From TrEMBL, chains A, B:
<feature type="binding site">
    <location>
        <position position="156"/>
    </location>
    <ligand>
        <name>xanthine</name>
    </ligand>
</feature>
<dbReference type="InterPro" id="IPR000836">
    <property type="entry name" value="PRTase_dom"/>
</dbReference>
<comment type="similarity">
    <text>Belongs to the purine/pyrimidine phosphoribosyltransferase family. Xpt subfamily.</text>
</comment>
<dbReference type="GO" id="GO:0032265">
    <property type="term" value="P:XMP salvage"/>
</dbReference>
<feature type="binding site">
    <location>
        <position position="27"/>
    </location>
    <ligand>
        <name>xanthine</name>
    </ligand>
</feature>
<feature type="binding site">
    <location>
        <begin position="128"/>
        <end position="132"/>
    </location>
    <ligand>
        <name>5-phospho-alpha-D-ribose 1-diphosphate</name>
    </ligand>
</feature>
<keyword id="KW-0328">Glycosyltransferase</keyword>
<comment type="subunit">
    <text>Homodimer.</text>
</comment>
<protein>
    <recommendedName>
        <fullName>Xanthine phosphoribosyltransferase</fullName>
        <ecNumber>2.4.2.22</ecNumber>
    </recommendedName>
</protein>
<feature type="domain" description="Phosphoribosyltransferase">
    <location>
        <begin position="47"/>
        <end position="157"/>
    </location>
</feature>
<dbReference type="GO" id="GO:0000310">
    <property type="term" value="F:xanthine phosphoribosyltransferase activity"/>
</dbReference>
<dbReference type="GO" id="GO:0005737">
    <property type="term" value="C:cytoplasm"/>
</dbReference>
<keyword id="KW-0808">Transferase</keyword>
<keyword id="KW-0963">Cytoplasm</keyword>
<dbReference type="GO" id="GO:0046110">
    <property type="term" value="P:xanthine metabolic process"/>
</dbReference>
<dbReference type="InterPro" id="IPR029057">
    <property type="entry name" value="PRTase-like"/>
</dbReference>
<feature type="binding site">
    <location>
        <position position="20"/>
    </location>
    <ligand>
        <name>xanthine</name>
    </ligand>
</feature>
Length: 189, 189
């Protein structure tokens, strides 16, 4: 997606070989016109997949998620992240490890909102090691529903998440793929 | 806002005299068409206020916030909530107490994204005691910017936040105002 690639080139800040900061348009401040275009692009990519739900994770997935859900005319659900929680009957729980923050979180979704027969599109802002996407996919599968695809705004293609998700049989569409962040420069795949 | 009032009546669950659960369309699952209408309504209410930024707080403020920012054609910033953090030069920090969760959080916004001269519209999903809205307003004022208004999706008008914010001189517009949650029934103001 050219518009997004331009934005990454103009406003992305390479903190080191692993971390790209995009807090001016995606993670903290958000560009709503760009988010709308992101939603349109995911809709174009996954049309024909009979999506019935969009699932994302708080917080940075919500803006691209809601714009995609709007275009697809289906509800958005966002998984909540918690440090740990007491077991409850009414929620699906999965453990997700964040390599960036070096901590585990439990992600939760109410059982009310995903059902057998649902075809769920997973949306997230970043893909690196794939931990969050796999956690969301396991929740969809716990619910007896199907992962119709995984839409990623920015994939760090030099990390293994994209390959691992593809090997697990998921269709992954990343709007921007980054091959390297060496020497302070973003190289696109 | 009639559409929203209907949704509260049909899908809101009164947990007790203080707590209304709206996780089927606002807090966990989100109705994107309703969120778009919410954004349109805030834009109608605050047009003429020369808004330059929309400010909200993660996570449930992001969907109504991004839809409002899209209609107003300005950026959205969402404040992050943290348990506590080491002091940093590059962020504004305010302490916010949650009566619901009975805990204090620090909310943070990068100094890069609000500037003197900005006219900021604060958006949040709920207004009860006004703690979050006051915290966001203090951040806007720390930045030397102006609070152009406060837009609330659902105000619990039997709690003091709306009155306190008005007394402090802020213009508050709530799309739905709830007078009471007694006996499991929502009474609108």
């Amino acid at each position: 997606m050219q518009l997004l690639q331009n934005k990454v080139r103009e406003e992305g800040i390479v903190l080191n070989g692993q971390v790209l900061k995009v807090d001016s348009f995606l993670n903290h401040q958000m560009d709503p016109v760009l988010m709308k275009e992101v939603g349109r692009e995911f809709t174009r990519l996954f049309q024909g997949e009979n999506i019935t739900r969009v699932l994302t994770i708080e917080s940075s997935g919500i803006a691209p998620g809601i714009m995609t859900a709007l275009e697809l005319e289906v509800p958005l659900i966002f998984a909540r992240k918690q440090k740990s929680l007491t077991l409850r009957e009414d929620i699906y729980v999965e453990k997700v490890y964040s390599f960036t923050k070096q901590e585990s979180n439990e992600i939760t979704v109410s059982k009310k909102f995903i059902h057998p027969g649902d075809r769920v599109l997973i949306i997230d802002d970043f893909l690196a090691n794939g931990e969050a996407a796999f956690g969301l996919a396991r929740i969809v599968e716990q619910a007896g529903a199907e992962v119709a695809g995984i839409g990623i705004v920015i994939e760090k293609a030099f990390q293994p998440g994209g390959r691992l998700l593809a090997e697990a049989g998921y269709r992954v569409e990343s709007l921007v793929r980054i091959a390297a962040l060496d020497n302070g420069v973003v190289t696109f795949a």
